[in-house]
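Re: the request from the purification team.
They wanted to know what the chain is likely to look like in 3D before they choose a buffer screen. I agreed to run a prediction and write the result into the notebook, where they can find it.
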Amino acid sequence: MKNVFSFSRNFWTAISMEFFERGSYYGVMSVLSVYLVLSRDEGGMGFSKESVGAIKSVITPLLYFLPILSGAIGDRFGYRKVLFFACFTMSLGYLFAGLSSTYVTVFGSLILMALGAGFFKPMIAGTISRVTDESNGSLGFGIYYWSINLGAFLFPLILVPALKSIAYHYIFYMAAVGTGLLIFLNYFLFREPAVNRVVKPIGQVFKEMLSVLGDLKFILMIVIYAGFWIMYFQVYDSVLWYLKERVDMSGFNNLINRVLSLFLDNPSWNFDAEHVTVMNAGAIILLQLVVSGIVRNFKPLPTMIFGIALGSLGMGMLAIAPSGWIFLASMFIFTLGEMTAHPKFISYVSLIAPDDKKALYQGYSFLYGVIGSGVGGILGAWLYVQYVDKMNMPQLLWLTFSMIGVLTIIGLLLYNHFLAPKNR
């Protein structure tokens, strides 16, 4: 507890800002793909799945690519100024998305939101790195990680069901308020980190980008690993469509309502799209430290391969039957795979990066998300329409994505044998 009290006000301000931003983001993302394809009569926008895939294949890569540039911009112009821009832009994007009624305006509003979010994240992570030290840095970033998942757990669990029962666009208004609140936190509580920063010209940022892209072994590893994230991003798109259209959750709903009936009269709880995000975040909150503790002494690359194997198994299990119990088990196993693979990926990047470029390589390691979401959004929507809507064979969809995971494993095994440093 002593270390908890060692953190400054700026640390807790940054943590609070991260909580509200991630809660707003995951609150929207937990239902966005469903809302956009629901008919107008059902309260949605009535867009085609392919057109939604196009939206997701633009906005999500922006979220992963922009931090590469925005970190340098924050160093040059100051964190508070960039945070004001980021929070104002996000809030405006969410507000416009809630007010929009056409494909073009929804797309443009979500790009505005992604632009703000892409500038926000590096400012908060950078602040935490600058207000912590060796004595409390590990705990500080642990709290930071928990704040992300706590927001992703609570907002979809509590706020999203209540708001969508009124109308889906109220979820966007909630996110606009949640991120708009950050403008006031930034103005009244946040203080510019008092450190001497090395200001990089934007030209140098692009020069460094070319130097990293020239490390072909590193880029190949990122491209291979992105295969797992093509699977991962289905959790926010095709998995949600499948849940809404095909999966029978009545058995699980009945069980939960029987438990709730001990405390409430005539409960009518239903598992819905937003609860997939709740499951993912809740499992990470409860089990990440346990999983990380189990694998902490294992080599990173083999551990990544094992985690991706779990993820592939979880995705493939969806092909068994449209059963609610199978759906829940598959999502849990997939999340275990994510918890196993991804922290070890971050560790592995740190191990293989040149000593004088570790932070630089960590920044560009996020290209896995650019590739995974860019491909996953369009591919998932197209395959869903072909295999599920047209052929009525959803099992082919999940086996295809599971095989992408298997190909990722094969790629990493070959990389480990022929290209990876032998002592890693």
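For the purification team: The chain has two domains: 1-199, 201-424.
Please add any questions underneath this entry.
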